[in-house]
Design goal:
Layout (H helix, E strand, L loop, with lengths): L1 E3 L3 E4 L2 E5 L4 E7 L6 E7 L4 E8 L5 E3 L8 E4 L7 E5 L8 E9 L2 E4 L3 E6 L23 H6 L6 H26 L1
Parallel strand pairs: 1-11, 3-12
Antiparallel strand pairs: 2-4, 4-9, 5-6, 5-10, 6-7, 8-9, 10-11, 10-12
């Protein structure tokens, strides 16, 4: 079994990274140890996978089918933070990454860092406001609007509203997947 313990702390709690980029996960150890294990929990595959073990002398032992070029551990002292560098990111790298140490025949896990790899990073929200228009506003009374046949006709706005609803409903599965 695994135990979560305050012997380990990890930063950050969540990473959002772009496909084909690289990232780093830190693990700060608060007790003496003989090396650090790195694991990944994949929600999609429902499995806990051993990635790499690194001892204080810098020697690394990798799990089955784990690329030594993709996962590199830095940290060569039992008192300094360790970091897991992951390169060439793809959707298959999604999951929660844990560092752990072994003491008294128990494996102690850190809190975990969730990594989500996406093709396109979301744009940050805009904080600037558009300048106010200096053009005079043209007021249209109900009578003038009624005289313009077709501009607000149900034949125009019903398909428009229907199309917008279909687009919004098609985004729900995508938003749900990104949330997971």
């Amino acid at each position: 079994g695994f135990c979560t313990n305050l012997l380990l702390s990890k930063t950050p709690g969540h990473i959002l990274a772009q496909t084909n980029s690289k990232t780093e996960i830190l693990c700060e150890l608060k007790k003496e140890h003989s090396g650090v294990y790195w694991y990944r929990w994949s929600q999609e595959r429902q499995n806990f996978e051993f990635l790499v073990f690194s001892n204080p002398f810098g020697k690394a032992t990798y799990g089955a089918n784990i690329s030594q070029d993709k996962f590199i551990v830095h940290g060569v002292s039992s008192r300094t933070p360790y970091s897991l560098h992951i390169s060439h990111l793809h959707a298959s790298d999604n999951g929660t990454y844990y560092c752990s140490i072994s003491q008294s025949s128990q494996l102690f896990l850190g809190r975990g860092t969730r990594l989500d790899v996406v093709d396109v990073l979301p744009l940050p929200p805009k904080t600037t406001q558009a300048p106010l228009s200096k053009k005079p506003l043209r007021c249209v009374t109900k009578r003038k609007a009624a005289d313009k046949k077709g501009a607000c006709s149900p034949l125009v706005w019903v398909p428009l509203v229907t199309s917008i609803l279909v687009i919004l409903l098609s985004l729900v599965p995508t938003a749900y997947r990104l949330h997971r």
